[in-house]
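Quick log. Single chain, no ligands specified.
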Amino acid sequence: MVDLRNGSTVTEFILVGFEQSSSSTRALLFALFLALYSLAMAMNGLIIFITWTDPRLNSPMYFFLGHLSFLDVCFITTTIPQMLIHLVVKNHTVSFASCLTQMYLVFGVGVAECILLAFMAYDRYVAICHPLSYAQIMSRQVCVKLVSTAWFFGLINGILLDYMTFRGPFCRDNHIENFFCEAPIVIALSCGDPQFSLKMIFADAIVVLLSPMVLIVISYARILASILGRTSSSGRGKTFSTCASHLTVVIFFYTSAMFSYMNPRSTHGPDKDKPFSLLYTIITPMCNPIIYSFRNKEMKGAMVRALGRTSLAQAESI
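-> predicted structure:
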């Protein structure tokens, strides 16, 4: 990658992030994002621990929840620690290889989460609409295959999108108007025609965002039809509550991702990109445990048992 203006090789990018903010604002943002990151890591870590160790949480729903939390941990760790460092240091440069690696991980984990959310919606559809066949349809082997499929397509998709982003030389500017390497912004910096790459990423977003969304909509439409056909108001309310929680996560994640990767480039800008980037890189991973798990009685009981075992082990060690 050669800079056509002066012949020098482009070896790094500069993440502008919150560089133009005052020092007091950056300090406040550092404290806020550090608290949110720590909270998200702690809550998702707790869910991973209890869903993988508590034998009472052996249903497919909790199996998927554990993997969703693992994806969220991977997702926020890919972007937020770097942002926290750049809030307290003046050097905001990242190497070309680091930017490429970060973008690959964001793509891979993000696509895997899109697909996993669709599989989780299908799991709820089978549990609510076909309860007698649920154990047979959603067997452990099937669940492992579904999670493996999400990871496989995510990691393969990351290779394709990385190639489309970095296929051309960079010779315009190396300043990225965001706090991490986001594909549409990086593509706009290439000295070739960025339209082909942007169109390919848009087409890919249609597949990896809209296809799972269609499965989610169909699943919940059938769930809604099944709920409305029931006579028990108590069972109806409980199912509505569970489905509303799942749909809230889907709306948060998909809305922000669609804005970033399916909007025309002319509608983007630092003031618009950063809030949506923050929404799907830290806010959604932090909200997932609250929305999915902490309203669930079985999850609350498992957390109490896990914390009780920890307290007992500490008492015995004294």
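Residues 1-8 have pLDDT under 50 and may be disordered.
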